[in-house]
């Protein structure tokens, strides 16, 4: 019996910022499809270990954890080397790790700039560069988590919006640089998860009212879109899919 050409069984993915929220949803979705996973985390060790145990209960020895600070650019090749040692291949890099917080103009310092640009743009670039030889050998793919605010800046978040705009161009630039061997695409979430620092109920209602579907999405909506790009969209590269319930239709 021949294996489905679109099957992901036996392939390996590296997901950054995978311990919780959208990263964990992506991990669960790809694991269900048969992929073995390398899950990166920075400080969420307990959450990463719980996720590993959950996935190992379904398939033993299918998940490796790696702790790393993605701001340390010189360490990124070692992260890729550790990934390669797990399954001697890499089929998918998911650049999910991201810092997000307000930086009102006039109060921005260099530390905030370096953190937001570093996690959302610099690290994805250098990690992709380090991963390219392995991905090329596997005919693999890169998926970036972008943001709808890459096109429409978010009030009081200029540095984050600038970083995500760069991330969107990174998708397109890498697709051109790495084709035909590696496909590069992006997913841009809209109202999926509220910020971890909280948001007033009135502000939430206002955001949802701006969407065509009048409701929030879920991390699984992002994960399913990413799965489509990885498994089914073999002739799509350099594209960014907004998963925002139609929020970007609002004038």
What this model shows, in words?
The chain has 251 residues and is α/β, with parallel strands linked by helices. It has one domain (12-249): NAD(P)-binding Rossmann-like Domain (Rossmann fold). 44% of the residues lie in helices and 14% in strands. Helix 5 links the parallel strand 5 (141-145) and strand 6. 38% of the residues are buried. The mean pLDDT is 93. It contains seven helices and seven strands; from the N terminus they run βαβαβαβαβαβααβ. The longest helix is centred in the middle third of the chain and has 29 residues, at 110-138. It has a seven-stranded parallel sheet, with helices on both faces.
List keywords for this structure.
251 residues, alpha/beta, Rossmann fold
Task: Describe what is shown at a glance.
The chain is of the alpha/beta class. It is 44% helix and 14% strand.
Oligomerization: single chain
CATH fold label: Rossmann fold
Derived structural class: alpha/beta
Q: Would you list the SSEs in sequence order as H and E?
A: EHEHEHEHEHEHHE
Rounded Rg: 18 Å
Spatial sequence of strands, sheet with the most strands: 3-2-1-4-5-6-7
Query: How many alpha or pi helices?
Result: 7
Give the DSSP E fraction (strand runs of 2 or more residues): 5-15%
Shape: globular
Question: Unreliable runs, pLDDT <50, ≥5 residues?
Answer: none
Sheet with most strands: 7 strands, parallel
Structure summary, number of beta strands? 7
Count of discrete domains: 1
